[in-house]
UniProtKB/TrEMBL annotation:
Name of the protein described by the UniProt record: Glutamine--fructose-6-phosphate aminotransferase [isomerizing]
Gene name linked to the record: glmS
Job description of the protein: Catalyzes the first step in hexosamine metabolism, converting fructose-6P into glucosamine-6P using glutamine as a nitrogen source.
Single GO biological process annotation from the record: protein N-linked glycosylation
Subcellular location: Cytoplasm
EC class (word): transferase
GO terms, molecular function: carbohydrate derivative binding; glutamine-fructose-6-phosphate transaminase (isomerizing) activity
Chain ranges of the SIS domain: 45-184, 214-352
Catalysis performed (reactions): D-fructose 6-phosphate + L-glutamine = D-glucosamine 6-phosphate + L-glutamate
Catalytic residues as annotated in Swiss-Prot or TrEMBL: 357
Quaternary structure and partners: Homodimer.
Length: 362
């Protein structure tokens, strides 16, 4: 049928979409570049970013996880304070808003009802909104003041992969362009850095056999799994845990390494898989300290580190990229490990039970 043709030689859309990530990166760079090769976005969006005294990112699921990374970009590069909220919670737990808020909605589909509920609300309050979406003309795009597109191509698998990395890339561009407009000098060239990311993504997509092996080793029989990280790695761990639960039905939890002692370490038993991300130089020693703590309680550690920070005990070393952009590549091992875990358990990879691609009811 038609879907088989679209899948080409791939057994699942998810695998195809994971593999498309280097291409999507290059497409995004190209779409957001001007004739001089500089990154650019609509001036009215830059103005809205500069008029705001605080940015509120609203999203659900994987898009929320991309928003957590986006907050780091916008605060570190453009120096504008950002809050990130789960859309379904925002209605009840609305924070005290700043005087000049700008709302950013992140949504692959542009149809998520919980996010739309917030958008309708804040528009009624007279606030400005920007939607970052993969679907031109989607509800969230039409109802917001501005739109930035992801250019990721249709994402069919319920588990979001290429939309997540596209969202993070577009957020990095938004942060960079805003920073430049504010006269902030960055010590790197984002076009170049994203190009390095695209190449690194290719290396990871070519290492599927290794990830299948890692998945077999750590996840084949387990009932649960933990993802730990510090700083930006923590956010990627949250996304890794979500991927794993939604398609393999393994109970998974992502948390900040420093939180172990505050509760979760009680769950570690003999053989419990703990997937640790170590891509951040500033916290490398602390996360490795956490690994030692869980190993002492019998955990089976799977360390994914970045080149330059690696040790002999690591299961996989990702290529080196700019320290802020590591989520774009450290997530790929987690996507692939989840994919193979689901495959080995004979789960319906593209259409996991109980889930819909876009959640259009509140
Ligand atoms: C991701 O793998 C999920 N299936 C889900 O969390 C998704 O990211 C969420 O429903 C938000 O969707 P959206 O990006 O289309 O708004």
């Amino acid at each position: 049928d038609a879907s088989d043709i679209e899948k080409g030689t791939y057994p699942h859309y998810m695998l195809k979409e994971i593999d498309e990530q280097p291409l999507v990166m290059r497409k995004i760079i190209q779409k957001y570049q001007n004739d001089r090769g500089d990154l650019t976005i609509d001036q009215e969006i830059v103005d809205a970013m500069n008029d705001a005294d605080r940015i509120y990112i609203i999203a659900a699921g994987t898009s929320y996880h991309a928003g957590l990374v986006g907050k780091q970009f916008i605060e570190k590069m453009a120096k504008v304070p950002v809050e990130v909220h789960i859309s379904s919670e925002f209605g009840y737990n609305m924070p005290l808003l700043s005087e000049k808020p700008l709302f950013i909605f992140i949504s692959q589909s542009g149809e998520t009802a919980d996010s739309r509920g917030v958008l309708v609300n804040v528009k009624e309050m007279g606030h400005k909104a920007l939607t970052i979406t993969n679907v031109q003309g989607s509800t969230l795009s039409r109802e917001a003041d501005y739109t930035l597109l992801l250019y990721a191509g249709p994402e069919i698998a319920v588990a979001s992969t290429k939309a997540y990395t596209a969202q993070i890339a577009v957020l990095s561009i938004l942060a960079e362009v805003t920073a430049k407009s504010r006269g902030i000098d960055l010590d790197f060239n984002l076009v170049q850095e994203l190009g390095i990311v695209a190449n690194a993504m290719e290396v990871l997509c070519d290492a599927k056999e290794e990830f299948e092996e890692i998945s077999r080793k750590f996840l084949s029989t387990t009932r649960n799994a933990f993802f730990i990280g510090r700083g930006i790695d923590f956010y990627v761990g949250l996304e890794g845990a979500l991927k794993l639960k939604e398609i393999s039905y393994i109970q998974a939890e992502g948390f900040a390494g420093g939180e172990l002692k505050h509760g979760t370490i009680a769950l570690i038993e003999n053989g419990t898989p703990v997937i640790a991300l170590a891509t951040q130089e500033s916290v490398n020693l602390s996360i490795r300290g956490n690994v030692k703590e869980v190993v002492a309680r019998g955990a089976n550690p799977c360390i994914i580190s970045m080149k330059g920070l690696e040790t002999e005990e690591d299961s996989f070393i990702i290529p080196e990229v700019n320290g802020l952009l590591t989520p774009l590549i450290s997530v790929i091992p987690l996507q692939l490990i989840s994919y193979y875990a689901a495959l080995h358990r004979e789960c319906d990879v593209d259409k996991p039970r109980n889930l819909a691609k876009s959640v259009t009811v509140e």
